[in-house]
Amino acid sequence: MRLARLLRGAASAGPGPGLRAACPSASRSLTSDSGSGPAPELGVPGQVDFYARFSPSPLSMKQFLDFGSVNACEKTSFMFLRQELPVRLANIMKEISLLPDNLLRTPSVQLVQSWYIQSLQELLDFKDKSAEDAKTIYDFIIWWKRQRKPISSKTHRKHKSKLQCS
């Protein structure tokens, strides 16, 4: 499996108990058959396989806007996102792994894959944190902002030529 080859060397995030649905509209429970989520010894490939088994929650634009204006609760948002984001990242990672081998070997695709791996590992650090803890929510918001930050000019310049050659 191409994804397994890429992820073989990646460090394990070591998730614990499975995620529980937090958003009323998302009633699924992300637990394995044993109820404990993906086994930590499976590492990143096992985590990707586990979370990719689930479909992302479909949200209409109306639901998205209503949630932000009517139910603007940080705890609910945190609980929903810590469940939803691993599923979305894992599904994207699986889709990337379906690219042709010659494209997967390019530095630009490998760079993007490494960003997804790092994001998934960091995101799973929040999986077992309490939404009742204000510091946890603060740390999550800081992490999210850092993830959404544009690529630094140094990284952009470094990889610009590689991206153009791909």
Automatic annotation (TrEMBL):
Designated name of the protein: Protein-serine/threonine kinase
InterPro entries linked to this entry: AK/P_DHK_N_sf (IPR036784), BCDHK/PDK_N (IPR018955), BCKD/PDK (IPR039028)
Subcellular location: Mitochondrion matrix
Pfam families linked: BCDHK_Adom3 (PF10436)
Coarse class of the protein's main subcellular location: mitochondrion
UniProt entry keywords in alphabetical sequence: ATP-binding, Kinase, Mitochondrion, Nucleotide-binding, Transferase
Family recorded in the similarity comment: Belongs to the PDK/BCKDK protein kinase family.
Molecular function terms, GO-annotated: ATP binding; protein kinase activity
Broad class of enzyme this protein falls into: transferase
Membrane-spanning intervals of the chain: none
SUPFAM superfamilies registered for this protein in UniProt: alpha-ketoacid dehydrogenase kinase, N-terminal domain
Biased composition range(s): Polar residues: 26-35
Residue ranges, annotated region (Disordered): 14-39
All copies of domain Branched-chain alpha-ketoacid dehydrogenase kinase/Pyruvate dehydrogenase kinase N-terminal, residue ranges: 58-141
Known EC number: 2.7.11.-
GO cellular component: mitochondrial matrix
